[in-house]
Amino acid sequence: MAENIINNDIIKEENLVYKKTALLTDKPLSYCPGCGHGTAHRLVMEVVEELNAQDQTIGIAPVGCSVLAYEFMDIDMQQAAHGRAPALATAIKRLYPEKYVFTYQGDGDLAAIGTAETIHACNRGENITIIFVNNGIYGMTGGQMAPTTLPGMKSSTSPYGRDVESMGAPLKMTELIAQLPGTYFVTRQAVHTPAAVRKAKKAIRKAFENQKLKKGLSFVEIVSNCNSGWKMTPLQSNEWMVDNMFPFYPLGDIKVPEE
């Protein structure tokens, strides 16, 4: 009886509360349990599906945890060299101006080796979307200190905490590029709660719609956790993120054009 109920009733369309977007592949996510990348992937693909733009979207994934994106996103994807995703996105968008083109990058990639490409693409106002996942650490390669690592935050290469005097201050890329004339929409969001997920999805959709309107570059930062790199449980890492990351990287729109 229970099996019949499941097969005949619960899986009916009217009983579905949530289902995976068809634009995520069936390959199991290989990210660490509790990581925000999976949710960010889902939001991007939900937006593409809602825009009916699967065959009109090209994503660029560079090196880092974000390099795995092409295994999970059922759209045209291109891998870029470490940090070079904005440069590659620029070329693709200029060759195919009618396409939706986005990069999906981590903080070690975008804010370190890719700083120049990021800043110049933003300054030129390339009509692309940059999605920037910031967890304050090099997640894939061993938890080293990144440009976004907080003052006093421990990592494998700053075991006593980041010392600003000797190691420099964290780089607030989102505030930095918001000052550039080529950026049209700049925002910082998160994906750790249902309310945050809704706001993040709204921001990502706005960024894609801006491309259609040829408004220039949209930049969406997603502050996320790295429970493995931070040596915490997923719950602990989310709590630590709220208490420590958000005060330094406050959520909300940073540059919104006048309507």
Please render the helix and strand layout as text.
Blueprint: H1 2-10, H2 37-50, E1 57-61, H3 69-72, E2 76-79, H4 85-95, E3 100-106, H5 107-113, H6 115-124, E4 129-134, E5 137-138, E6 144-145, H7 164-167, H8 173-178, E7 183-190, H9 194-212, E8 217-223, H10 234-248, E9 252-255
Parallel strand pairs: 1-2, 1-3, 3-4, 4-8, 7-8
Antiparallel strand pairs: 5-6, 7-9
Report on the structure:
The chain contains 10 helices and 9 strands. With 259 residues, it is an alpha/beta fold. The chain has a 7-stranded mixed beta sheet with strand order 2-1-3-4-8-7-9, with helices on both faces. Strands 5-6 form a two-stranded antiparallel ribbon. Strand 5 (137-138) and strand 6 form a beta hairpin. The chain is globular. The termini are far apart. Mean pLDDT is 92; it is low at 1-6.
| Strand coverage percent | 15-25%
* Helix-residue proportion: 25-40%
Could you say what the CATH architecture is? Answer: 3-Layer(aba) Sandwich
Q: Whole-Å distance between the termini? A: 56 Å
Task: Work out the radius of gyration.
Answer: 19 Å
Secondary structure class reads alpha/beta
